[in-house]
Amino acid sequence: MGGARDVGWVAAGLVLGAGACYCIYRLTRGPRRGGRRLRPSRSAEDLTDGSYDEILNAEQLEKLLYLLESTDDPIITEKALVTLGNNAAFSTNQAIIRELGGIPIVGNKINSLNQSIKEKALNALNNLSVNVENQTKIKIYVRQVCEDVFADPLNSAVQLAGLRLLTNMTVTNDHQHLLGGYIAGLFHLLLTGNGSTKVQVLKLLLNLSENPAMTEGLLSVQVDPSFLSLYDGQVANEILLRALTLLQNINNCLKVQGRSANQLPFAKGSLFFLLYGEECAQKMKALACHHDMDVKEKALAIKPKF
């Protein structure tokens, strides 16, 4: 890390005694800047701890990264990741952390067997990934995060943290192709997960569905017929509206490509087979009379496609 090696005394002081956790708190808090409370940018999805209300400067971040790289203490590691993740919610520090070589230091922590450390590392990477330049360095972890998401306990905090990171990494089309082999797994999570997992998977799938280059991969994937239950009128709006938008996006991509649904022969049991079958058409007709105006409008926009 270059200059970070010159501040080894920080780690030596912090890892001694029961006061280590308090010391990291004091280390990373600089003087108040004119008494202003600085707030994170809107794009930060999830701050793991709200107690750190000031942006750290480059020197403090360098010390923090050195500590994170050098300590084996799980408590200190977790505290450092929380502090780093909070500061990665600010655009200035997203660039500084990258320039200090911090992304691989954080990225290595997603290999931890400690689930809390792994979650905090994913949260930090998630905030760092808001920066497009950071994504070019974070993309090397995408496939591992995908594998971990499917291996982690269903609906766990670690699984959700991984899904949030993947969602940020697919906001643009640049890295979506890295998820091409995991689409079936995402649909499985969508159908088996709880409400929070369903919403997060749908956010990710919506990103993919906006890209015409991903349309064929989405439509060809084998999906359990229970998928169509997402279009039942009693489904929570935060899920139902996203499921409708998924179909709407796919229709739009087909239109961009100059293709119609009846021109695309996909295997029985595929997402295409479900979305453009008679059962789905009947559900769209029913949703066109839905009591919620947003649901009704989306269903009416989709209905002419059938």
Your description of this structure?
With about 300 residues, the protein is an all-alpha fold. The chain has two domains: about 140 residues, Leucine-rich Repeat Variant; about 140 residues, Leucine-rich Repeat Variant (Alpha Horseshoe), CATH 1.25.10. The protein is about 60% helix and about 0% strand. It has 17 helices and no strands. Helix 14 runs parallel beside helix 17. The chain is elongated, with a radius of gyration of 22 Å. The N terminus is likely disordered.
CATH class of the largest domain: Mainly Alpha
- Please mark out the parts with pLDDT under 50 across 5 or more consecutive residues, or reply none: 1-52
How big is the Rg? 22 Å
Instruction: State the distance separating the first and last CA atoms.
Output: 58 Å
β-sheet strand percentage: under 5%
Count, helices:
17
Instruction: Kindly state the number of beta strands.
Output: 0
Q: Tell the overall outline.
A: elongated
Question: Can you give me a brief rundown of this structure?
Answer:
The chain has 17 helices and no strands. It is mostly helical and 306 residues long.
Give a topology summary.
Blueprint lengths: L7 H7 L5 H9 L29 H13 L3 H14 L3 H9 L2 H7 L6 H14 L3 H7 L3 H10 L5 H13 L13 H10 L2 H15 L2 H9 L16 H20 L14 H5 L2 H10 L5 H10 L4
Helix pairs in contact: 1-3, 2-4, 3-4, 4-7, 6-7, 7-10, 9-10, 10-12, 11-12, 12-14, 14-17
Short key terms for the protein model shown above:
306 residues
